[in-house]
Design a protein that fits this description.
The chain is mainly alpha-helical and 670 residues long. It has a domain of 234 residues: Neutral endopeptidase, domain 2 (Orthogonal Bundle), CATH 1.10.1380.10. It has a 4-stranded mixed beta sheet. Helix 10 packs across helix 11. Bound molecules: zinc ion. Zinc ion binds next to helix 22 and helix 24.
């Protein structure tokens, strides 16, 4: 489930991976074992390896040596690029000679976040203004009224996302998932240790919300037994109805009103209904629990219910109160290294992503690039279409579905067609500049207001806000559930894509576009249809053939042993590899349009995408586990090995050299 609200999470400015991956442990010489540990600092051979032995290292060798000289032990062009873009925006915020709505807004939030003195002086007062509203309620009706006014915040009983729903995939509806203080924090681990840890955390939050220690202990006991009972009632519900917690139970707002009052109150208060009176569907997950919460909404439980609201508000507000509270959330070892400027900027970066994007694109990003990349994307989609059309192993039935899927594939490229207008938020912040928390809640209302205004309307697969696509992240991706590819401005870094050479553009960005398109037809993409809804759209016979092709690639990957006794998990990385191979194949198809295409330049530039340094085998391994891309250097070499054009370009790659694969072993699904 996606969250519509942006929570502040500490980031090293970029973590997403579209094209990045990792490395591995092992021997420090390359002989006999191809491409072992190429990306690990200090593990490079003293001389450049021959092209036919390790193409990636051969091409990127000088860059690795340069890094070695400088002592750069960890390097990844994507994270580097993202950091550089973020830095550029940071200096624009500091440059007061420039003024736009977005810059002023970022400055206002920056100032509130960075004002340590003011925040520390206020302590938990900004939160108490809200928890008092709850504490003062003397009946359930009064409490419900407060919640329905929309003045409270946090995920007391539920969290929500605006999305297409199981019963209506053509309109925006609401996803609802349950939240309860213990249950959501315990995450299924009921060991004494974990319970004690969660209890301690909840104790701190209750005290923050204004409860005394005595009240807190009592409230937590009550909350705990409340949750035990809720669990019991929910099990009975599941047994009676046959649904499970993972099923989405479709409901209307009216049905929810009778089913679970606090859920209804929250939906009303937060605006998850259509102000235009359009019908909206809700997918209720954990329906049993909501049933229980509804059944337990009785006067006897008033105090428990109040404390659930308060603990949830405290949990959200904690990071926006005084600095010790903020720091505690992130387990800082000491305040000595605490850099309020850095955190303030990260807060701005995450809170106002679209303003950050807009600023970067307006002041820094070269004009005209969007058109170039859009044209290129259209070319690649056409190339995929042609390839599918010419595929000989698909029956007409499956082929027609595949073509329909590529025809309905949408793309969002570089930056949105329209930007969020922040002027209203800027005015609101000016009125709420006393407490950071209030300003944050204004921001949340603003974004939520955008999302809830979509409810009941036709689902738009390319809405940037819905997609939470931030332009200046160095990434690109395909969304299976939407059949949409996203190529962000951030991935066009280093200006190398604006080079006039078609080889450079295609090697750098073209292969990535092709990669994302091919995801629509990889081992996961084959299970989602042209609108992104789950469906295996293949005939049995074609599906079997597809899986056989994928299995051959997985097998070939599994034979790579970058570490003694440890092989690549072929099955795990096969989806990304199919996409990689598709990216190359489509590029080489398009290259045929250029009679003087310089294949050497193309292949060498392509290798630059996979330059990456890991400080040591351990770090590489940590990255490697859980990444469904193979290590970059393996990715690079494995991909080009599968292309006939590689052998035509480099006749020295012959049988007996490490880069060689026999023609019958050159694999690609598409
Ligand atoms: Zn991918």
């Amino acid at each position: 489930m996606k969250r519509t609200l942006t929570a502040l999470v500490l980031i090293v400015l970029i973590l997403l991976t579209a094209c990045q991956s990792t490395g591995k442990n092992g021997s420090d010489n390359l002989q006999g074992k191809p491409w072992v540990n190429s990306n690990i600092y200090d593990n490079w051979p003293s001389e450049r390896p021959a092209l036919e032995e390790n193409f990636e290292l051969h091409v990127n060798y000088d860059r690795y040596m340069e890094a070695k000289e400088k002592g750069i032990k960890k390097d990844n062009p994507l994270s580097q690029a993202s950091n550089a873009m973020a830095e550029a925006v940071r200096s624009l915020i500091a440059d007061t000679s420039k003024s736009t709505v977005e810059l002023e807004l970022m400055r206002a939030y920056y100032k509130l976040f960075a004002d340590e003195e003011q925040r520390n002086a206020q302590g938990n007062e900004p939160l108490l203004l809200y928890t008092r509203m709850v504490s003062n309620a003397t009946t359930l009706e009064e409490l419900s009224e407060e919640v329905r006014k929309g003045l409270l915040f946090g995920d007391a009983f539920a969290e929500f996302a605006v999305d297409k729903t199981s019963s209506d995939t053509t309109h925006y509806g609401v996803w609802v998932e349950s939240v309860l203080p213990f249950r959501s924090r315990l995450k299924g681990d009921f060991s004494d240790e974990n319970i004690a840890r969660v209890r301690e955390r909840l104790t701190n939050l209750m005290i923050l919300a204004g409860y005394t220690e005595e009240e807190t202990a009592q409230a937590l006991d009550l909350m705990e037994s409340y949750e035990v009972l809720a669990d019991k009632i929910s099990q009975e519900y599941y047994e009676k109805t046959g649904v499970t917690g993972e099923d989405a139970v479709p409901m209307t707002l009216d049905e929810i009103k009778d089913f679970c009052t606090p859920l209804y109150d929250q939906l009303i208060g937060l605006g998850y209904w259509s102000a235009e009176g359009l019908p909206v569907m809700y997918d209720i997950y954990d329906a049993g629990l909501f049933y229980a919460i509804g059944q337990m909404y009785i006067p006897d439980n008033l105090e428990i219910i109040k404390s659930i609201y308060n603990v949830s508000m405290a949990s959200y507000a904690k990071q926006f109160l005084d600095i010790p509270n903020f720091a505690e959330m992130y387990d800082f070892e000491s305040f000595e290294d605490f850099d309020i400027d850095l955190y303030s900027f990260q807060f701005v970066y995450q809170s106002l992503a679209s303003a950050v994007d807009q600023t970067y694109l307006e002041f820094v990003f070269p004009k005209g690039v969007r058109q170039t990349i859009t044209d290129l994307t259209v070319d690649y989609i056409e190339a995929m279409r042609a390839r599918l059309e010419n595929t000989t192993w698909l029956t007409d039935v499956t082929k027609a579905r595949a073509l329909d899927k590529v025809d309905k594939m949408l793309y969002i490229v570089v930056y949105p067609d329209y930007w969020i207008d922040y002027s209203e938020l800027l005015e609101l912040v000016a009125e709420h500049d006393q407490f950071l928390l209030d300003a944050v809640l204004c921001r949340d209302d603003f974004y939520r207001g955008y999302m809830t205004s979509l409810l009941g309307h036709y689902f738009d697969r390319t809405d940037w806000v819905y997609l939470q696509a931030n332009s200046i992240v160095a990434n690109a991706y395909y969304k299976y559930a939407l059949n949409v590819i996203t190529i962000l401005a951030g991935i066009l870094f280093e200006n190398r894509y604006f080079d006039t050479s078609i080889e450079t553009i295609m090697a750098s960005i073209g292969t990535i576009i092709g990669h994302e398109i091919t995801h629509g037809f990889d081992t996961t993409g084959c299970k989602f249809n042209e609108m992104g809804d789950p469906e295996i759209w293949w005939t049995d016979e074609d599906y079997k053939l597809f899986n056989e092709k994928a299995a051959r690639i997985a097998d070939a990957l599994s034979q790579i042993e970058p570490l003694d006794g440890y092989n690549v998990n072929g099955e795990f990385v096969v989806g990304e590899t199919i996409a990689d191979l598709g990216g190359l194949v489509l590029t080489l198809d398009l290259a045929k349009k250029y009679p003087d295409f310089d294949y050497d330049l193309f292949f060498r530039t392509f290798m630059n995408n996979f330059y990456e340094i890991m400080p040591d085998a351990e770090t590489a391994m940590d990255n490697y586990i859980g990444d469904n891309h193979t290590a970059d250097y393996i990715r690079a070499n494995f991909n080009v090995q599968m292309m006939d054009e590689f052998y035509e370009t480099y006749p020295q790659v012959v049988e007996g050299t490490t880069m060689y694969r026999a023609p019958e072993d050159r694999l690609s699904v598409w």
